[in-house]
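Appendix B. Raw example, untouched.
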Amino acid sequence: MKPDIDKVIHIVGILAVIIAACAVKYLMDVSKAQQANLVSLKGQVTTMEGMITKVAGEKSALEADLKAVQAEKENLASALTGYEAQARKMADDIRKMGHTLLTARDKMAKKEKGFKDALAEKDAAIAKLEAKIEAFRAEMARPRDGSRARDLEPEGQGTEAQGALRLEPLVVESRRIHEPIDAKVLDVNKEFNFVVVSAGSDQGIVEGDSLNVMRGAQYLGRMIVERVEADVAVARPIYKSLRDVVKRGDRVSY
């Protein structure tokens, strides 16, 4: 029986050695696999660290971009506030300008109406004066006793009159004290030898007054008033030559 036990023990020892060898091999295989896994994990960790570093860089860049965007947003908000203030000011200015334009338009309309009314009055006054002038012309065209003799201008005839003095015709003039007048020649009728003056009885002119005709500082001659209306007078030049000299706009005074 003893040999069988030894045999069994021997077999068990062999089996134990085999099992130990298998266990060692298994452990060695497991260790190699774990080492390979560890290397793989290290590689993965390195890759992930690189990715983390890249993401961190991208995050930093994004944060910088975000700060720039926020700064631009603040600048835009500030500019928008300024633009809104300018827009409100421009709106106020436009309202004020509109009010000013309306006021100016009203003033211009009133002035235009005043000018039109004044022009109408002037036109009416001119028409009235023209009617009076035509009436004076018609009246002067009618012959009067002695008018031809008074209109004659003394002029020398032939060689005997050469160098002779020209004397004024005898005219009866008013010798009263006159108030100064500022009148002008309105019309000259050479055919009937009379002048229409822009002053009449309202300015103190009466028939028989003697009026001087001036052009600037130049004395042109004298006229005798023959007819007077309220605002115009008709005068006859003492010399016929004056009718060829006097013009519209010449100044008339005492």
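End of appendix B.
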